[in-house]
């Protein structure tokens, strides 16, 4: 289940992509399938181990071109161990809302992105997220360890990208079917994923992710502008001069 749109990201085979906060690797895997050289970064060792194992399985199964390079690195978003301009494309999906001071992280992402490169940043959409915060204090910080520390509007994210020297270009929302699921989770307690009211919806989402039936795909596309759980903003790094925040 991808959040970023690779056509809007502009990813091409042979390019270098950083997947920051890769989790178990969904965006990294798709980028590698498309022929990109991928570096997957996260702070969680178990998730990185899973990502590495999946890369190995993909290569063994012939899913990756023989010249595609993949690497998993444990690193802090605010101190990335990469050279300036090391990547052509960057994805930071559902990461910034966990970082108390997001400015240094965005500055690092801008630093490692080459001039003319593109970044896709995804965060929880403003009003679906506000509903979650209102329903349960256990969903977000400070009660939720490592939980969300802020809510972004589209303008907030544009401004932060601009302050980092990046130029926002496009945006959209994704995963509308996931908003009601998280509202339900928050209503019964975020940690209660096996609640009788939650379990059937979770199974529906799992089925949808695996099968991707036309009906739910069309329904979600219609609902995304209003109910989309994730906001995705794309931004370029100017080749010369300063970026203009929109």
Overview of the structural elements:
Helices cover 39% and strands 20% of the residues. By secondary structure, the protein is an alpha/beta fold. The protein has a 7-stranded mixed sheet, with helices on both faces. Helix 5 (126-135) runs parallel beside helix 7 (178-188). Strand 2 (37-42), helix 3 and strand 3 form a beta-alpha-beta unit. The chain has one domain: 3-Layer(aba) Sandwich (Rossmann fold).
- The tally of domains stands at 1
Stretches where pLDDT is under 50 for at least 5 consecutive residues are: 242-246
Oligomer: single chain
- What is the percentage of strand-forming residues? 15-25%
CATH fold type: Rossmann fold
CATH superfamily: Vaccinia Virus protein VP39
Number of strands: 7
In brief:
The protein is an alpha/beta fold and 246 residues long. It has helices spanning 6-9, 26-33, 45-60, 102-112, 126-135, 154-163, 178-188, 199-211, 214-227, and strands spanning 16-20, 37-42, 70-74, 87-93, 113-124, 167-174, 230-236.
Quick tags:
246 residues; 7-stranded mixed sheet; Rossmann fold; disordered C terminus; alpha/beta
Which secondary structure elements does this structure contain, and how are they paired or packed?
Elements: H1 6-9, E1 16-20, H2 26-33, E2 37-42, H3 45-60, E3 70-74, E4 87-93, H4 102-112, E5 113-124, H5 126-135, H6 154-163, E6 167-174, H7 178-188, H8 199-211, H9 214-227, E7 230-236
Parallel strand pairs: 1-2, 1-4, 2-3, 4-5
Antiparallel strand pairs: 5-7, 6-7
């Amino acid at each position: 289940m991808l959040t970023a749109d690779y056509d809007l990201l502009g990813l091409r085979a042979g390019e270098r992509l950083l997947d920051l906060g890769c989790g178990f690797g969904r965006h990294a895997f798709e980028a590698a399938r498309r022929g990109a050289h991928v570096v997957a970064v996260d702070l969680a060792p178990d998730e990185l181990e899973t990502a590495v194992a999946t890369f190995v399985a993909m290569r063994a199964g012939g899913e990756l071109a023989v010249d595609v390079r993949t690497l998993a690195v444990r690193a802090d978003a605010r101190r990335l161990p990469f050279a300036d301009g090391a990547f052509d494309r960057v994805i930071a999906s559902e990461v910034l809302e966990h970082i108390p001071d997001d400015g240094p992280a965005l500055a690092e992402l801008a630093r490692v992105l080459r001039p003319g490169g593109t970044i896709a940043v995804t965060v929880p959409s403003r009003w679906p997220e506000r509903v979650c915060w209102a329903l349960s204090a256990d969903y977000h910080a400070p009660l939720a360890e490592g939980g969300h520390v802020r809510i972004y509007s589209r303008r907030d994210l544009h401004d932060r990208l601009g302050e980092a020297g990046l130029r926002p270009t496009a945006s959209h929302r994704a995963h509308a079917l996931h908003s009601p699921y998280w509202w339900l989770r928050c209503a019964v307690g975020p940690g209660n994923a096996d609640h009788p009211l939650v379990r059937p919806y979770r199974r529906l989402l799992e089925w949808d992710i695996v099968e991707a039936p036309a009906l739910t795909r069309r329904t979600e596309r219609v609902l995304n502008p209003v109910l989309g759980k994730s906001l995705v903003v794309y931004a370029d790094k100017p080749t010369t001069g300063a970026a203009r925040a929109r």
